[in-house]
């Protein structure tokens, strides 16, 4: 296990809980209080962005930190679950299967997790970004 193992495990657990909440919201008694477009950015900032940045942190700075296969899979899966939450906030169901490496490269290029997610998922369509309501 790498020194990032505990952080990856925590991210993975939280991502699965948050993604599962969307399935629970399909029940007739669900409140849907976290599925509006205004909530989408939080899934990126507090979820996918943290997972991607952990990867960047481990791969830069002079020392390449090797991940165990299970850690890498958990990190990538967590990122994808949060991207699914993000797209569902915009009314789009997506089975995300992106690589954390491609996400990291885009994040370093755009320097913005919202732009990164939008470019990867194509949600919402470019030029049609939903503005959070106040």
UniProtKB/TrEMBL annotation:
<feature type="domain" description="DUF8055">
    <location>
        <begin position="2"/>
        <end position="125"/>
    </location>
</feature>
<dbReference type="Pfam" id="PF26240">
    <property type="entry name" value="DUF8055"/>
</dbReference>
<feature type="region of interest" description="Disordered">
    <location>
        <begin position="19"/>
        <end position="41"/>
    </location>
</feature>
<dbReference type="InterPro" id="IPR058368">
    <property type="entry name" value="DUF8055"/>
</dbReference>
<protein>
    <recommendedName>
        <fullName>DUF8055 domain-containing protein</fullName>
    </recommendedName>
</protein>
């Amino acid at each position: 296990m790498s020194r990032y193992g505990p952080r990856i495990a925590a991210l993975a657990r939280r991502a699965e809980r948050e993604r599962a909440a969307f399935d629970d919201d399909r029940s007739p008694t669900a409140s849907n209080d976290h599925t509006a477009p205004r909530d989408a950015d939080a899934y990126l900032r507090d979820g996918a962005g943290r997972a991607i940045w952990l990867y960047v942190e481990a791969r830069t700075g002079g020392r390449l930190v090797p991940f165990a296969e299970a850690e890498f899979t958990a990190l990538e899966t967590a990122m994808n679950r949060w991207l699914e939450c993000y797209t569902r906030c915009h009314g789009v169901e997506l089975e995300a299967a992106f690589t954390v490496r491609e996400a990291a490269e885009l994040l370093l290029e755009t320097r913005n997790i919202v732009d990164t997610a939008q470019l990867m998922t194509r949600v919402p369509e470019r030029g049609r970004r939903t503005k959070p309501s106040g």
